[in-house]
Design a protein that fits this description.
The protein has 5 helices and 10 strands; from the N terminus they run βααβββαββαβββαβ. It has 239 residues and is of the alpha+beta class. It has an 8-stranded antiparallel barrel with strand order 1-4-2-10-6-9-7-5.
């Protein structure tokens, strides 16, 4: 199942708190209440910016939108091509969001386990040009599986980003070209230790370039989840 991910920017005249309030209390319910939106989307959630992670480059966007696509032709036809989007959603986006500098891409959830609960740590990783796709994926896969052995990790999901779908919403050249997105949920008292472990992994090859890793904590706000049971990744941790 394809997922569309947007790294959002707020309007420059709004504070982060003002942006987050409108996004959560007005924009999210607006989308969830449009019947046509549910023809295209099976799950919609917002990741609101929280604390800075103790490793990598600080997350310098204003939130992340995760949108699970329902249609097989999502790359060719999305809700953004509909009259409902143009008439109802776009005018509201202009009230709080700035397309300048915002980035969007499609991804696939390639591995996952556990039950999302607790604090959410998101890590965006870019492949160094000197590392092959196969070596990078193998190293990241091994790292991902070690998360299951850490006390306090409630769940994790690994997204593979489709490189050809990365776009800047203002039509310019994307400022970032990430390769993978990792989401980790940890219980509060264990988050420092979990983040320290993740930080140790990204400090060595092939993740050792500081600019290749962006990380932060987020508050996840889900508006609906209509995915069929067979589309939800396993809840069993890897052995």
């Amino acid at each position: 199942m394809l997922k569309r991910v947007v790294l959002n920017r707020r309007r420059p005249d709004l504070s982060l708190a003002q942006f987050g309030t409108h996004w959560r209390d007005a924009h999210g319910p607006l989308l969830a209440g449009i019947p046509d939106y549910h023809d295209f989307v099976s799950r919609y959630l917002q990741d609101h910016v929280g604390a800075t992670a103790p490793f990598g480059r600080a997350f310098d966007y204003d939130g992340i939108t995760e949108i699970w696509q329902k249609r097989a032709d999502a790359l060719e036809r999305s809700f953004a091509t509909t009259a409902a989007y143009r008439e109802h959603v776009m005018p509201d986006e202009l009230r709080f969001a700035d397309r300048g500098g915002a980035i969007a891409f499609f991804s696939r959830e390639t591995a996952g386990w556990g039950v999302p609960r607790g604090a959410k740590l998101i890590v965006l990783v870019s492949r160094d040009g000197g590392v092959s796709d196969a070596d990078f994926a193998a190293a990241l896969g091994g790292w991902f599986n070690t998360l299951a052995q850490l006390d306090g990790v409630a769940g994790a999901v690994l997204d593979t980003i489709l490189a050809e779908t990365i776009v800047s919403l203002d039509g310019g050249e994307p400022a970032e070209r990430f390769t993978f997105m990792l989401s980790v949920w940890c219980v509060a008292e264990a988050c420092d230790a979990v983040a320290a472990s993740v930080g140790r992994h990204v400090a060595v090859a092939p993740f050792h370039h500081p600019a290749s890793v962006v990380a932060g904590y987020f508050e996840e706000v889900e508006f609906f989840d209509e995915r069929p049971t067979d589309a939800v990744l396993t809840t069993k941790a890897p052995a």
